[in-house]
Design brief:
Number of strands: 4
Number of helices: 1
Number of domains: 1
Distance between the termini: 30 Å
Strand content: 35-45%
CATH architecture: Roll
Radius of gyration: 14 Å
CATH topology: Ubiquitin-like (UB roll)
Largest sheet: 4 strands, mixed
Length: about 80
């Protein structure tokens, strides 16, 4: 797929790191499957992966964790 950000690159399947910050919590999730632009590095997540990451983030924030670093494969 053509990258909508740089408009010069195409995406390729790979893994990326997603960092989220909300309500004083910083959540870093590594090894997230994504389509990654080979030119600018912007990534695109599918709906299932996005839903899973948002659920992990919500659970982490509710626990009151300030900083969480995890791999998606081992995250609940």
């Amino acid at each position: 797929m053509e990258c909508v950000i740089c408009k010069n690159g195409t995406t390729k399947q790979g893994n990326t790191t997603v960092t989220l910050e909300k309500e004083g919590s910083v959540i870093v999730i590594k090894d997230v499957p994504a389509q990654i632009c080979q030119n600018c590095g912007h990534y695109y997540l599918d709906e299932e992966t996005t839903d899973r990451i948002l659920k992990i983030a919500q659970d982490t924030i509710q626990k009151g964790v300030e900083v969480e670093v995890m791999h998606l494969k081992t995250a609940s």
